[in-house]
Design brief:
Length: 389
């Protein structure tokens, strides 16, 4: 079936240029990078080339890049690894209310195991206050973990400013940049980032590969123990195919970043303008400008985001909502609640995330299909009836 995919923050399709470079490693070049015969040396070389590409994309050096099994693992490693290695100095960690669960739940796990946590609130756009951050830092603070760009609302944090504050206080700064890498320009040195998580499947490469940037000299323990891979810091036979794909994907996105950012921002603004023109009682969640090029997040009052998703699905249009009903929970997104939205408004959210395969025509189709869907759902909504009285 022909469909339109608007869930690029959830995962992305593997692009053909990326698929092409991994094929030889599925076939004759399948060797284990730790072995010494010719095809294994080829694997090892491919691994190191990918490492150089990842390093280059974020302004790091290759020996600061470590491959992992996911963005989630990178977040776990950064936080637990720094916590374990620096517990002599202190046990206080600072994070934000709108982090991905890979960060929030890791921090919460630590807070139940002897560490202390400060969770910074955000403003109505999802941005933390630098003043709050500065005030939260204590002599026993060992880590600040604040995401680069939010996966739900697209808001981009003042990362360089956070980095500066962390550096001035001698506290490590980790950023979950899974949504940002390849889509927004990043330089770990200019931004004073000490640890950065990224993930391949948000960049048109396959699922199940991530990387962690660790600034040289950072005190961090491994969390996966076993063989000597990744210079004794992350055990397990390398996911060669995933890593080669990640290297090529990040390289391509970096080359394309200016043009693609401009194109996606154009589509995003067209979508926002069109929705505000045709649909009443709607709110844009996240910051109007400081947001990822491809992220749009609306709240439609008086209806449920899940119902919008189902009706879009019937039209072959795939998007996402801010309530986690799909995962068996009725709680609205912690991110939308942190912005100060009521439960009802948070439940009416719809996330459209545009990617490199989306066209102008896709946006036209959505702008055609969405208004009648919203109208139909509102016509059935008791809340809407109530409001009209
Ligand atoms: C997708 C995502 C993750 C998790 O990455 P996986 O590779 O899927 O484990 C973490 N943080 C953010 C912001 C994400 O968008």
């Amino acid at each position: 079936m022909k469909y339109i995919y608007f869930d690029n923050a959830g995962t992305t399709r593997v692009r053909p240029e990326v698929r092409d470079v991994i094929l030889p490693y599925l076939d004759e070049d399948f060797g284990n990078p730790s072995a010494i015969y010719d095809i294994a040396r080829k694997s090892k070389k491919a691994l190191e080339t990918a490492r150089e590409k990842v390093a280059k994309a974020i302004g790091a050096s290759p020996d600061e890049i470590f491959f992992t099994g996911s963005g989630t693992e990178s977040d776990n490693w950064a936080i637990k690894g720094v916590a374990e290695a620096n517990k002599q100095k202190g046990k206080h960690i600072i994070t934000s209310a709108i982090e991905h669960h890979a960060v929030l739940n890791t921090c919460e796990y630590l807070s139940k195991n002897g560490y202390e946590l400060t969770v910074l609130p955000v403003d109505e756009y999802g941005i933390i206050s630098l003043e709050d951050l500065e005030k939260a830092i204590r002599p026993d603070t060992i880590l600040i973990s604040v995401m680069f760009a939010n996966n739900e609302i697209g808001t981009i944090q003042p990362i360089a400013e956070i980095g500066k504050i962390a550096r001035n206080h001698g506290v490590y700064f980790h950023t979950d940049a899974v949504q940002a890498v390849g889509h927004v320009k990043i330089n770990v040195n200019e931004m004073n980032i000490d640890l950065l998580s990224l993930s391949a499947h948000k960049m048109y490469a396959p699922k199940g590969t991530g990387a962690l940037y660790i600034r040289k000299g950072t005190k961090i323990k491994p969390i996966i123990h076993g063989g000597g891979q990744e210079r004794n810091r992350r055990a397990g036979t390398e996911n060669l195919i995933g890593i080669v794909a990640l290297g090529r994907a990040i390289e391509l996105l970096t080359e394309e970043i200016d043009a693609e950012s401009e194109r996606l921002t154009g589509l995003r603004q067209k979508l926002i303008t069109g929705v505000f023109k045709d649909i009443p009682h709607v709110r844009l969640n996240g910051h109007p400008e400081k947001r990822l090029p491809g992220n749009v997040n609306f709240s439609f009052e008086y209806i449920e985001g899940e119902s919008i998703l189902l009706m879009l699905d019937m039209k072959g249009i795939y998007a996402s909502s801010g309530s986690a009903c799909t995962s068996g929970s009725l709680d609205p997104s912690h991110v939308l609640l942190a912005l100060g939205l009521s439960h009802a408004t948070a439940h009416g959210s719809l996330r459209i995330t545009l990617g490199k395969f989306n066209t102008d025509e896709d946006v036209d189709i959505l702008l055609n299909e969405l208004p009648p869907i919203i109208k139909k759902l509102r016509d059935m909504s008791p809340l809407y009836e109530e409001m009209k009285k």
